Amino acid sequence: MKNMIKTSLGLALMMMCSSSLCATLTVWEDLDKAGAIREFADQFEKKYGVKVDIKDRDSANHVYDVADLISRGEKTPDIFLLVSDRVGDAMSKGLLAPIDNMEQEHSRYIDTAAALFKVKGKYYGVPRSVEALVVYYNKDVMPIPYETLPEYIDFTQKHKAEGIYGLISKVDNFYYSYGFFGAYGSYVFKQNSEGEFDAYNIGLDNDKALKGVSVLYDFAKNHVPQSVLGAEGWDNIDDMFKSGKVGAIINGPWTLNKYASAGINYGIAPLPKLPDGTPMRPFFGVKSYAVCSKSENRKLAEEFLKFINQTDFALKRYHKIAELPPIKELLAKEEIKNDDYASAISSQVEYADPMPTIPQMAFVWEPMEEALYSIIKNGEPIEAALDLGVMKVKQKIAEN
Question: Which domains does the chain have, with CATH numbers?
């Protein structure tokens, strides 16, 4: 049966090309990342006699840009990048084509990664990389990372006279602070047994959320400099890390190149456990390759994605761009297990919640960040601030 499928596919791909006309597959990669798959695209071109045109574009804008091209009746890419929290939005805009070979291929990927792109029994993404918050530590300030939040706090107490902190984070940012919510079982939108999110069941003001935010408040108010709050906080955190004024920070994979180019002698570790030993549970997200609904080369696109996501190719891509593919065979390799960065990411994903994939997630960020800021900066009672934040989220959902 498998041989019949391969033969049929091969014939279909051959029919796309003739001596006078050859199919061109247009692929959008992330900004400055096209080179990570160019080698494999060249091999694909030779194998199937087609052309692969890879373009560098900021993946944060792929969904917007594809939707814009479709609305103006212009040519779209065959393949673009889709982050898991944009699945619902992309589906509602009609941007995605189902990827049929993922019915067989999905088992190659960790279950949580593939499931985020499954809608009503069909897959709409091929997982490319997984990301979650981790701890970056400056080995010249803190030779080894700690396993618990109290240990980082103890470091702060011991070095307070020197003006050096143990661990800091953008505590008033909901994305960065969700690990405290998720630790005790709070959630943004409740998931059912099929993994679908219920926009009308919000768990950000329940007892579990109150417990997590109480720990966050104590940490933020007593053990983190107030300069991390507000818009200026981002730069202040980076400056403190680069200058050795903090031993460790919480950040994501997107900052890896920045810290490496700054010459910091850094290491990477999972997030610390809270004072009672409970692991923090931040969001995790998955970046996938998606096939555009307007593509005239869908089968070719599917085969291309299967081709470039072979384990050995995905491993080479990881070494080039440091974005970890959630492929089971790859994660089981000794070189990945012994890689501090890959090990930290894969370990953290085991203790992380998937970021909701429904469009209503867009209405959560601002109200919850306002709530966190009012709690940490202004001393607003936690329960009242969270209740108000959730009320605003519900209002926004109702209005839209």
Answer: 2-131+285-353 (3.40.190.10), 132-284+357-399 (3.40.190.10)
- In DSSP terms, 83 is beta-bridged to 287
Torsion angles phi and psi, residue 276, rounded to 5: -90, 10
Beta bridge pairs of residue 248: 137, 167
Structure tokens at 250: 């919480």
Task: Quote the CA–CA distance of 382 and 167 in Å, as a whole number.
Answer: 23
Model pLDDT for residues 11-32, shown as the tens digit of each residue: 555 555 543 357 999 999 999 9
Which residue type is seen at 53? D
Structure tokens at 364: 């959560």
Residue 82 burial (CB count, 10 A): 29
Cβ atoms of residues 133 and 250 within 8 Å = yes
Q: Considering Cα of 233, then 239, then 241, then 246, what sign does the dihedral take?
A: negative
Beta bridge partners of 82: 288
Measured CA distances, 396 to 236, 341, 370, 389, 399 (Å): 32, 38, 14, 11, 5
CB 309 within 8 A of CB 374: no
Q: Which residues pair with 122 in a beta bridge?
A: 119
Work out the average pLDDT over 104-113. Answer: 96
Q: What are phi and psi of 81, to 5 degrees?
A: -95, 140
pLDDT digits (tens, 9 = 90+) for 203-230: 999 999 999 999 999 999 999 999 999 9
**Which among 339, 181, 190, 325 has a CA at the least distance from the CA of 268?**
339
